[in-house]
Amino acid sequence: MPDDLPTAPATVRVRLATTEDARALAGLAAVTFPLACPPGTSPEAIAEHVATQLSPERFLAWAASADHALLLVEPASDGGTHDAARPLGYALLVRGVPDDPDVAAAVGPGEAVELSKIYVHPAAQGTGAASVLMTATTQAATRLGPGLPVWLGTNVLNARAQAFYRKHRFEVVGRRTYVVGGETHSDVVMALPRG
After folding, report:
1. What is the CA radius of gyration of the chain?
2. What tens digit of pLDDT does each residue of 16-57 get?
3. For a surface tag, which of 49, 111, 140, 179 has the fewest beta carbons within 10 Å of its beta carbon?
4. Contacts made by residues 161-169, CB under 8 angstroms, sequence distance 24+
5. What's the order of all strands across the beta sheet hosting 12-16?
């Protein structure tokens, strides 16, 4: 991931990622995922999670899937082109039936849209890029699963993320366990109000 990312992008845009973005997004995920892990998560568990769950192959599959929406936020350019090597952040939506019974109990039976991942590069935090990405992501969720509940999970100790999600209307509706590289963690489940 480049170290010279702008710290305050004047203008950003959000677009659907393509398969061409997979390698850059996997690189960004390797930088951002460890920052969201709770204290005490072992470096080995984080490395295993990044290698197995956030690989370029995973991003390729998500970008090509009709049941996923993979978005990225990037600096806007004058020429209408994009620089796949420089995403500022990304989000992943997944449409499907939650396989975790605690999540299903919290968000209701049947299909839902999970906001599985949303991250911005540390250099872009505090610039507004995350809010622009979140707004576009919640709009994309209504297109991916019209009328379906929209939910996410975040670690119980990640107060900063929970405050960000509350700012964007998510409410705590339950709890779940989440495994990172074989280590079990406790998450809150948050969802957008229905209706």
Report:
1. 16
2. 999 999 999 999 999 999 988 888 899 999 999 999 999 999
3. 179
4. 161/36, 162/188, 162/190, 164/130, 164/134, 165/190, 166/190, 167/131, 168/131, 168/134, 168/135, 168/138, 169/138, 169/193
5. 12-16, 68-75, 89-96, 112-120, 150-155, 183-191, 171-180
pLDDT of residue 40: 87
Q: What pLDDT score does 3 carry?
A: 38
Supply the pLDDT for residue 195: 65
Tokens of 34: 């460890």
What's the DSSP call for residue 51? H
Specify the CATH class of 12-148 in words.
alpha beta
Cα angle, residue 164 at apex, residues 87 and 46 outer, rounded to 5°? 60
| Contacting residues for 94 by C-beta, under 8 A, at least 6 apart | 67, 68, 113, 114, 116
